[in-house]
Amino acid sequence: MLLDFSVFGLLRYTKQGTVARNTSSVINVLRAAARELGRCTDYQWGHMGSCNCGYLAQQITHLNKNQIHSYAMQRYGDWNEQLNDYCPTSGLPMDELISEMLNFGIDRDDLRNLERLSDKHILSSLPPDERYLRLNVKSDVIKYLNAWAALLELECVAEISLSDLYAHQAAV
């Protein structure tokens, strides 16, 4: 199901002063990454294209896992180290991939947290007995991605006022 909050003036979302993001697109790509991860048989936390961030990168960039891994191997390190060394003007393919993800609306902290399943806000949205996720367990990554999408949806819905709905209805 594709979500489009733009009719209610919620096309943009700002997270703690970071760049505005297209919330409906981010929600949809998080859900798509979770679905794809659920279907796959080749999840590998140690493979830059088949790990937590790798599956999200596949959905955003439309690159395959081997292309993403190849880009990453042109420099050292896992996703966290790649994000620490990120330079938007380096010309390195991995930096261009990260730039594409940032331009899409995912920020560097989002990616760091996804790789480690560590965002406290996302984790606290889960039932207490499901908050201890293992970063290299596929079912936990799927749970995290879906919880992240659900949290963004709730934040969008919280921004909708009755006056927005009435204004939209009157315009139609």
Written description of the protein model:
By secondary structure, the protein is mainly alpha-helical. It has one domain. 58% of the residues lie in helices and 2% in strands. The chain is built from nine helices and two strands. The chain has a two-stranded antiparallel ribbon. β1 and β2 form a beta hairpin. The longest helix has 22 residues. It is globular, with a radius of gyration of 17 Å. The protein starts with 11 loop residues before the first strand and ends with a helix.
Summarize the structure.
This protein has helices spanning 23-39, 52-61, 65-72, 79-84, 93-104, 108-116, 120-124, 138-159, 162-171, and strands at residues 12-13, 21-22. Helix content is 58%, strand content 2%.
State the shape: globular
Strand content: under 5%
**Annotation field: number of helices:** 9
End-to-end CA span: 22 Å
Primary descriptors:
single chain, 172 residues, mainly alpha, two-stranded antiparallel sheet, 9 helices, globular
How would you summarize the topology of this molecule?
Elements: E1 12-13, E2 21-22, H1 23-39, H2 52-61, H3 65-72, H4 79-84, H5 93-104, H6 108-116, H7 120-124, H8 138-159, H9 162-171
Helix pairs in contact: 1-2, 1-8
